[in-house]
Design brief:
single chain, eight-stranded mixed sheet, 3 helices, binds cobalt (II) ion
């Protein structure tokens, strides 16, 4: 299941409007998309860095996973790392076969129409880990 690259790094922020200027003005990246993902109760902003993206995540509800993260990390921070895989279902079953605990047993739709699933940080050295697959693969 070897991942092809890091698809994105997810970063929790309190407020997209306050967070975006650092990426645009200091790093010189361009925010090319802002999208709300109702399912995950987040509003996302995307930047490209080579083949990899930065995904800023702002909570849209108090019970959003990002709101919970911000309670523990009030300044925000790195929330998850997403690996691009060619077949997310295969990657999940490979991980499960070696005892990795899954958050999503079945892939779901994430931002940008990707098929995504999360592995539990208990099984990944504390790093919330996402697999992503382009929907047309
Ligand atoms: Co993500």
């Amino acid at each position: 299941m070897r991942p092809t690259h890091i698809e994105h790094i997810g970063i929790a922020v309190k407020n997209l409007e306050e967070a975006i200027p650092y990426y645009e003005n200091v790093l010189g990246l361009k925010c090319y998309s802002i999208e709300t993902v109702e399912d995950q109760k987040v509003k996302t902003a995307f930047f490209k860095v080579g083949q990899t993206k930065i995904e800023l995540l702002e909570p849209t509800a108090d019970d959003s996973p990002i709101a919970k993260y911000l309670e523990k990390n009030p300044h925000g921070g790195v929330h998850h790392i997403a690996f691009a895989v060619e077949n997310v279902e295969q990657a999940l079953s490979d991980a499960q076969a070696v005892g990795v605990q899954l958050i999503d047993k079945v892939p779901r739709k994430g931002a940008e129409g990707l098929n995504i699933s999360f592995l539990h940080p208990k099984s990944t050295g504390g790093v919330l880990t996402e697999f992503c697959q382009e929907p047309n693969n």
